[in-house]
Amino acid sequence: MARDIILSMKSVTKIFPGVKALDDVTFEVDRGEIHALVGENGAGKSTLIKILDGLYIPDAGTIEIEGETVKFDNPRDAFAKGIHVVHQEVSTVDAISVAENIFMGRLPRKKNRLIDRQKLYAMTAENLKRIGSRLDPRQLVEKLSVAEKQMMEIVKAVSFSPKLLIMDEPTSSLSKKEIEALFFILRGLNAEGVTIIYISHKLEEIFELCGGITILRDGKAVHSGKVSELTKDRTIEYMVGRSVENEFPARSDTVVPEEMFRVENLRLNKDDPPLRFHVNKGEILGFAGVVGAGRTEIMSAVFGITRGESGEFFMKNRKVQINTTTDAIESGIAMLTESRRESLVAKSTVAQNITMVNLREISTGSGFLRLKKEKEVANRYVDILSIRTPSLNQYVLNLSGGNQQKVIIAKWLFNGPDLLILDEPTRGIDVGAKREIYQLMDSLAKEGKSIIFISSELGELLAMSDRLIVMKNGGIAGELRRSDFSPEVVMSLAVS
Fold first, then answer.
1. CATH number, position 356
2. Is 15 part of any domain?
């Protein structure tokens, strides 16, 4: 039976200064299938998708949609062919409602040209219901969590009834229940004949959802075929070019019985129960809980991004005042936020991002930057963290997600913090980069740094944490020592 190919990218090559992002890649997708596109960070996935979305123009190669050769000069051209991309890093207008974001540019109007809000909210509610979301169409987007914004972007894409839907790490901020709802919708769209390209570093999702698969490595397509013909281990071997064993490093006992940081009587809102917790020197303190449990909100208060109703903070048994992020940084705290966009200056260079928090270390007494020193510092952290970049002058927006994450970590390490808060540090990065993050966490703990580790992936929390605090509805539901860890106990505390 002849294949019905909806998308064919033939011999596509894309070169940036100092790096060949795509090297003679051929990528084909059958109509009506869910096709996985996988590979390590920097393998070329994002570049391939940006070409397909009209953001980049290939240096060589052709694109065919339903047998017709096409040329996309901008995203409008791709959209006109029924292609819609849901990007990992959501792009929303926070000052307007969920409904206005979803139907931006196509708002229903009354005869007098005013927005027909009753119809708008009804249309939005219908689309939200399709995907199983409980978002309020009238809710201001600035009040939504990262996970809720991600779900809203997915609803927006589905509302266009696309011919080719591209999902870039769509579940990176979703709960298990939301992921199940998303998979139900994607299978329904697939049954209706919608073709889906699905990008994810979560291989269990690939094997559960996808029929076809293409694997990229170092800008080349190294395998294409059916998911059913592969195993997880074989897929990883294709991705990294070698066998990857022991996903998590063997944790040694690095905890020193010496308190590094303590929180007392923290209330985010007036009626909340007071929160108390501490982290010791050399300890990785994990925070578990379902989406919306309050983990990120607590750490935002600790780092001075937001202010709670009350609370006291102690660093090395000395009371510190934290009203702003500057207060937190000067107290020896650093935070890698859940959204990379909040921690990076996208149109600044790798070197500038690494050194920006500690400019006094690379400045003269009169305040002028010592560019040679900046280069030395940046090179040191690029080497330490194995940051893949063609040069220190590369804008960080052009780096892969995993390498952007490493730049953020480098920025904070250069400032020499005692406490490092990591909020979803492995979200949207590949298996190789994840292991590098885990190894870095273990190394920092051995050096005596304290780490607060927030993750929605229970497996990595259990593997990397010395102690675990389980959150539920903004409060602490329980605290577990490593000897008491088990998925069943954690989930029981989180949801019961």
1. 3.40.50.300
2. yes
